[in-house]
Specification:
By secondary structure, the chain is an alpha/beta fold. It is built from 6 helices and 14 strands. It has one domain: Ribonuclease Z/Hydroxyacylglutathione hydrolase-like (Metallo-beta-lactamase, Chain A, 4-Layer Sandwich). The radius of gyration is 18 Å and the shape is globular. The two termini are about 25 Å apart. It binds zinc ion (2 copies). The site of one zinc ion (ZN) has 6 residues, from helix 1.
Amino acid sequence: MQDRTGGSIARIEFHAPYHPNVLIRLFDTYYSIDGACSNRQDRYIHWITHFHFDHIRSSVAGGADFLLKQDEHITIYAPHDPTPVDECSSVFDIHRKLYAHHTKGKRVLVPVMPGEKIQFNGTTLEAVPLRHSIDNFALFIDNGRADFTVLVTGDWLGSDEENREAIVSREPSILISECRYVNERSYDMTAERMHAHLRDLVELRELLPDTVIIPYHISRTFSNISALNRIFDENNMVFGKKILFYEDIMQYEVTEPY
Ligand SMILES: [Zn+2]
Ligand SMILES: [Zn+2]
């Protein structure tokens, strides 16, 4: 057993099996992906993978903007989605206005380009484009202090060869992947909807033997959590609401099941 007196070095938290929200703590820095906002700008990264409503609603609503000092802002990184909505604005533009309007200018969307790398508190954040029905940027986190990396997919087409290559080539220590459906008969439908299926993750499992795979953002049509637990367990994947990681990532601990 790992000596745990020094405590965990990372914690990964989900809101619910079907939610796209992911909160990662790596040492003393937090990464909120498609999730709620914090006023602690010195410690928090806020990241939006793509502009589907379930991925933005937590960061546009709620939160404690009143705790911000005057002139303080919350920065939210989001894909520079240039798709035109009308003659003068893009998908990114209308969302920047939406956030500014609802938060009286307190939350500022900052555009991220495909492949862009951002430095924060000794961490490199990389926007990894993964094909989905609209522009989606997975977040690849590489923290200089730990010898492990984390990749959070957002929504992605699991059967796409380039997508798979983008993930496999980075050999993440922890892969947090959307897994919309798990039944074999749903495979074609999952691909048509540009999502990822259990079968795609099982294939990645083969290609990434040293990676801890955590499925998330499961379809709401699954209400039988114990069946999901069994399926993911059988496929050597980690499924849980709160997971702690220690120096040896294989010594992870699910501290709160769904
Ligand atoms: Zn989604
Ligand atoms: Zn989506």
